[in-house]
Amino acid sequence: GSSGSHTYQVNDYNRYFLNQLYELLTEYGPVHQIWFDGANPEPGISETHDYAKWYDLIRKLKPDIVIGIGGDDARWVGNEHGTARETEWSVIPRPMGGHSDTDLGSRSRLTIGSTLSWFPAEADVPILNGWFWNSSKTPKSVSSLLGIYYSSVGRNANLLLNLSPDTRGLIPDNQLSSLRPFGQIVRNTFISNLATGSTVTAPADSQSPASNLLDANPDSFWESADTATTAEITLDLPDPRTFDVVSLQEPIASRGQRIEGVSFDVWNGSAWTTQANATTVGHKRLLKLANPVTTSRVRVRITASRLNPSLAEVGLFKEAISIAAPTIANRDTQGQVAITGPAGLAIRYTLDGSEPGPTSATYTGPVPLPLGGTIRAVAIGNDGLPGIEASRSFPGIASTGWTADADQQNEAAARAIDGDPATSWSATGPATPHWLRIDMGSPRWISGFTYLPPAAGGAGTVTSYRFETSNDGLDWTTRSEGTFGNMANNPARQDVTFDAVKTRWFRLTVLGDVNSGTSAKAAEVSVIAAGFDAWKRDHGQSSVQPQDLMESGRTALAEYVFGSQGGVLSASRTAAGDLSVRIRSRAGLPDVSSAIDISHDLATWVAPAAASILEISTSGEWEETHWSVEFPSSWSNGFARGSMGLR
Asked: In the prediction, which pLDDT does 637 show?
C-alpha cells in the first residue's frame, strides 16, 4: 500500500480516528481484516463517522484488507453464537435486510430494482460466555467448538473465534485446553479425502470433466449443460470406505454461487438411501451425517440451482478423535528428558523446531538435551494421524558436574541446579544482597542466563539482579544488571541474553524481591549456550562432535562455520607475489578462530612471516574476509591453506 502523507478535510473526531487507523495499518505488521462493529461506546452521544474517508485511507494503505461488518467486504452473520443460516447466500441484494433476518438472499428477495453484491457472512463467537476474560468464566467445550465449526465454516461462512487474554496479557491454559484438541480434530478430520481414487460419473452433456471434483483445486470445476438446473453425480469408490462428513464446494471465484438445493445418497447394496439434504453450498457446505456409513458408492444430487450448476470439490471424511498430548518431564541434571503418552501409541518427536508427525523420530527412551533446546512431541493414533502436540523448551544448559554455593542457604543452593522446579534455593535475613554462585567445572561459551522463580512466587521472587562471570571464582565481570517485570502477578521464567563470553563461573546477585524485603529464592538457574553449542542445540544435534560428518558430507564444525554458502570464494597471486584469498563464513561466531598456513611442497606447513586481513564485510548472517599472505621470496612454488578451529 501507499504510506506517506494523506490529507483529508474532517472534524476533530475523524482526524483522531484517521490518525489511529494510519498508526494501526503502518506500525504493527500484517493486518488482514479491520472490523467496524458499529457499537457506540457512549450511548446518547452521537458522532459523524466519515466512512468514505476511512475506507479511502484503508484502501490506500492496505489494498487487500477485508473491511468487515461496517464495511462492504464481509457482513455480520447476525448473531454472536458462531452460527450461520441453513441457507446462507454470499450474493446479497442491496439494499440489504437486517443482519439478523432469516432470509437475505433467496429468490423472493431478488426484487426488480435491487443490486446484487458479493457480501459473504462472517460468524463471530467468543470462546467464553462473553467477550472479555473473567476468572469465573469457562471456555466452550471441544464438542461445542466442533458444532460451531460445522454451523459456520460448514454453512458458507467465515468463523471468527474470539480468545480472551487474562490480566497477564496471555491466553489462559483453560482456553487452550479446548482450542488445541478442537484444532487437532479439525486438522485430522480433513487431512485425507476418502473419495480420492473414485470413478466420477456426471451427465453426458456436462461442459467440463467430473474428474475435476477430486483434484483438490478449488478453482477447477465440473459444470453441467447450460440449460440444466439439476444434476446427479455418482462416485464409485475404490473400495468400501467409512465416513460421516461430506464436503461440497462451488467454484465461487469464477462461477459465483448458484446451488439452491442438494441431497446426498449412499448405496446400501440394493438401493439408494438419502443421508442428508441441504440448500446452499457456496464456498463450502459440510454435511455431518447422523452416524458413520460404510459404502463403495455415493451420489450427489443437485435438486435446484439459479443457473446451470457447477461444483469444484466433493469430499468424504471421517471425523477424527482427539488423542491426548504426551507429557514431557523435567530435564534431569544429566540433561535427559523423558516423554510419556497414551498407552499403546507411538510417540514421535523433533528437536530442530519442525512440526512432529508420523515420520519424525520415534521415542524409545529419555532424550538427551544437555545444551538445552525445545522438544515437540505427538502421539500417533491407530489411524496413523498425530494427536495433540506437546512442546517444552529448556533454554539453559544442563547442570551436569556443576556445584553451587551461596551467601546464605536456608534451603540448599544445590536446589537451584537440580533440574526440579519444585525445589528452591532460598536465603532470608538482613545480610543483603544475597548471591548464588555456580561452578560449571570447566569453561564454556554462554550468551545469557535463565532464572525460574518458585511456582507460587511470593517473598524472595527476584525483581532486580546482577549477573556476573568469572574464570577463577575470584575476579568477576558484570554481564547484565536489570529488573524483571510483573513478577508479583506473573512469576514466570526469565531469559536474559548478553554478548557471548567463555567462562567457568557465574554468580546471580539478588538486588530486590517482590516484597522489597531481604529474601531471595530460585527454583532453577542456568546459562544459555553460545557458539557451536548453540548451533548444535538449534539443530537438534546436542551430542555431535566437531569432527562428525553431517548430511552435507562435511564435518559438524565445517557446517557450523561455512553452512551452505561459505568457503573459499577466490584465491590469486598478486603482482608482488603475495596470495590474495577471500573466504566466506557465518558472521559473529564468538568461539571460532582462523589461521593461514603456507607450504612450498604440500608436505611441510608453516605460519607465514606476514598475513593480514585487508577487509571484513558483513551481509546478513554471512561474513567475507579478505586475507593477504606473504610468501618467502626464495620459494618457486607456494601453497596456502586456511583453518578454522574452536577457541
From this structure: 83
Mean pLDDT by 10 residues, the chain (647 residues): 84 95 93 85 80 95 92 91 96 87 91 88 92 87 92 97 92 90 93 96 96 96 97 98 98 96 97 98 97 97 97 97 90 95 94 92 96 93 87 93 96 96 92 92 96 92 97 97 87 93 98 91 97 92 88 88 89 84 91 88 90 90 91 84 84
How far is the CA of 168 from the CAs of 39, 133, 362, 487, 492, in angstroms?
27, 11, 36, 11, 11
The span from the CA of 141 to the CA of 198, in Å, is 36
Instruction: Please give the angle made by the CA atoms of 258, 260 and 263, to the nearest 5 degrees.
Output: 120
The DSSP-derived string for 245-268 is: EEEEE--HHHH---EEEEEEEEE-
Smallest Cα–Cα separation from 287: which of 278, 274, 279?
278
Alpha-carbon gap, residue 262 to 232, rounded angstroms: 10
Q: How far apart are CA 186 and CA 512, in angstroms?
A: 48
In the three-class reduction of DSSP (H, G, I as helix; E, B as strand; rest coil), residue 425 is classed as strand
DSSP class of residue 181 equals H
Spatial separation of the C-alpha atoms in residues 181 and 390, rounded to whole Å: 11
Q: Residue 470 region, left (φ>0) first, then alpha (ψ -120 to 50), else beta?
A: beta
Cα–Cα distance measured from residue 305 to residue 458, given in angstroms and rounded to the nearest whole number: 67
Q: What is the pLDDT of residue 41?
A: 67
List the beta strands (DSSP E) in 143-258: 157-162, 199-201, 222-223, 231-249
Q: Is 397 helix (H, G, I), strand (E, B) or coil?
A: coil
Query: Is residue 524 within a helix (H) or strand (E), and if so which, with residue range?
Result: strand 524-529
Amino acid identity, position 176: L
SS3 state of residue 292: strand
- The count of other CB atoms within 10 Å of the CB of residue 3 is 11
Stated length of the chain = 647
Cell triple for 345: 501409541
Inter-axis angle of helices 51-61 and 12-27, nearest 10? 20
Closest CA to 450 of 487, 496, 485, 416: 496
For 444-499, give the DSSP string: EEEEEEEEE--TT--TT-EEEEEEEEESSSSS-EEEEEEE-TTTTT----EEEEEE
Maximum CA extent, the chain? 101
Residue 539 makes CB contacts below 8 A (sequence gap 6+) with: 352
Alpha-carbon distance 460 to 345, whole Å?
A: 43
Cβ contact 333:417 at 8 Å: yes
Kindly state the DSSP code that residue 167 receives in the 8-state scheme: T
